[in-house]
Each structure stands twice: as structure tokens, then as C-alpha cells.
Amino acid sequence: MSQQNMTIDQPTPNYKLEIPDHLQHLLLAGFASGVIGVVMWMVLSEAQRLIAVIFLVVGVTAGLVGILLWMVTNQGARLNARRKMMDTAAWRGDEQVLDVGCGNGFLMLEAAKHLTTGKAIGIDLWQETSGGQKDQTAWRNAQLEGVSDKVDVQNVDARRMPFEAGTFDVVMSSLALHHMGSNADRERALQEMVRVLKPDGVILLYDMLPMINQSQAVMRQKGFKHIHNMGGVAMKVIAARR
Q: pTM for the complete prediction?
């Protein structure tokens, strides 16, 4: 085989952007329930068709939820949201950046590429249910992206951050708020994001509409007068400044 025809596989960052396993299972369960409902509707008597209706309703509901989740988590949507967030930050290069719920570093490492003397810190609580997100993977991705000297990854609860008030120029989070439990948990995390932000800093968020609505309410309560909504239906990107 000639050298020109040889293919050398180079390691690439792993951000787990494929459709999550639980979403695939939900879509398959919805499809199966719908098929069962259709078959039962065809073979059961009119008096027994309530059972078929139940299967059909479950199937349609699971399918709609699955489609909504796919709209939020598919690779194209996440790449587009990240681009909007990076373009909005107006980088100088010396920023201190915090990525809340950084996972495998999809957002944090892109921010680090804009830094010269600055630092990007990613925080998360890595668990077995984190959809393949691991701190070791984040570090490996940082090395592959060539920014390991510009980042730090810490196991930190977003509701109780150890950082001093006014530490960060940019605080950002992508698809993490909806994993934070109750509305009260999310509000505590949002209040912490505000606390650690510098007075002239910016908060960049990407998540599903209910979480973004809650975020905007908290920002307004905290005196943020400039909240830029960058579009979206099921999910939105916002930038908030005081």
C-alpha cells in the first residue's frame, strides 16, 4: 500500500454529542407503544379499544417528548448555540471564565481557545447518570485541543461555589440547568453564577425554555438590565449583563 493511501487515525476529542442512550430508549419505547396500540385497535373489539387508546397516547407522548429532547441535544443545535455564545463574549484574551456543568468540556474548551493569559474553569458533579460525561474525559479533550494549560476542571456543586464574589468575567452554562433538580436548586445555582460574576461581566446560558425563563427572572431580580435573547423555540441562548 502506498503512503498516499495509508490512513492514520488521529485521536479526536469526545464530547458525547451523539443522541443519548436514554433518549434513544425513549424514542424506541414510544414507537413500540404506538405500534402495539395500532395493532390492538385493529384486532380488539370496540369495547376493548380503550386499551389500544392508552398505548397510542403513551406512544405519541413519548415520541413528542423524545423529539423535544432531540431538538435540545442534537449536535447541530449545540454547535450553533456554542457559536452564538462565543461570538457574544467579545474576547480580550485575559478573561477568567467559569463553565457551570462543563461535562466533557464542550463549551469550556472552546472558550479556552480564545484566551491568552486568561483561564477557563469548568465545574461539575460527575455521576454514573451523567450520560458519559467524565472529568477524565474533559482533561483528555483539553490535551487534544491543545488548551490544557488554560483550563482547570473541578468537582464542585453549582449551588455552593467556593469562589470569591466577582471572580469571573464570563460565566456560562450549556444544558446543565435542567439537571440541577428542583426550581429552588436551579435558583440557588443561578444566584451563585451572579455572585461570582464581575460587575462588568456577562452570563451566557443555553437550555430549555422553562429554565431560560427562570434564569431571566432571577437576572432581573438581581438588577441585570441587559438580557439579550438570541432566539429559539424549545431552547434558547441568552446573554445577560448588568
A: 0.77
